[in-house]
Amino acid sequence: MDLDLPFILFWAVLVCGVIWLADVVLFRKKRLANNPEAQDPTLVEYARSFFPVLLLVLVLRSFLAEPYQIPSESMVPTLEVGDFILVNKYAYGLRLPVFGTKVVDIGEPKRGDVMVFIPPHDPRYFIKRVVGLPGDKVRYANKSLYVNGERLQYELVGDVTGRNYRTQMREYLETIDGRSHSIYKNARFERTQEWEIPPGSFLMMGDNRDKSQDSRYWGLAKEENIVGKAVAIWLHKDPGWNMPNFHRNRWIE
């Protein structure tokens, strides 16, 4: 079962704060009047101790940055399984924790951004690349993207080796709005799809195009479900009993 950490953290802060405040307002004065040397109840001591720490963590996670671990191959070669990434929570505006309501408008997603969000079919965080913005007309045909009638630029890098894929993969350099990133794709047939992106929605795709469950399968990401922009890899740990390392540390293109 996946834990909703922001939800748990929010309620932990709220409960600790209510316990501490209730004691200060309703009980502490009477307790000290009866016994000036009386100690606070254990529950109140814990609430007073944990409240500032939990509040600080909640603020940092909600408004500044949040760590996230890559669980699948959908963003290979940009992101590998076991990468720990840093998510900028304020790049697309400040949002209330748990509720996701934007309270301060700072910026908007751009084509080519790697974005963390909650998809329409699953409560867990997903990470994909933004390939379509509100108002765009996007077509995906013959494994190529066309945005508003213009085909993106693709440059063949070479065959992908060292991975146990049943179908031969090739690496390409894909350029969108002047920014380039590597993608994997094979020669397997895929049906043509077209989208007209409505307001408040985004078309998301994984860089490992033939091994990614993305907007081609479950639809568009919604603005109110944006978590933040993935900006850097800060740690890597291969699955299993392996030590963490820093050899993949880099900014995310």
Attribute tags:
253 residues; Umud Fragment, subunit A; 2 domains; eight-stranded antiparallel β-sheet; four-stranded antiparallel β-sheet; 3 helices
Summarize the structure.
By secondary structure, the chain is an alpha+beta fold.
Number of helices: 3
Poorly predicted runs of 5 or more residues: none
The first-to-last residue Cα distance is 32 Å
Task: Give the overall form.
Answer: elongated
The count of β-strands is 17
Strand-residue proportion: 25-35%
- Reading the helices and strands in chain order gives HHEEEEEEEEEEEEEEHEEE
Q: State the fourth-level CATH superfamily of the largest domain.
A: Umud Fragment, subunit A
Query: Helix/strand/pairing class, anyone?
Result: alpha+beta
CATH architecture of the largest domain: Ribbon
Mean pLDDT level: 87
Q: What's the alpha carbon Rg, rounded to whole Å?
A: 23 Å
* Oligomer designation: single chain
Which class of the largest domain in CATH terms?
Answer: Mainly Beta
Summarize the amount of helix as a percent range.
Answer: 10-25%
For the sheet with most strands, the description reads: 8 strands, antiparallel
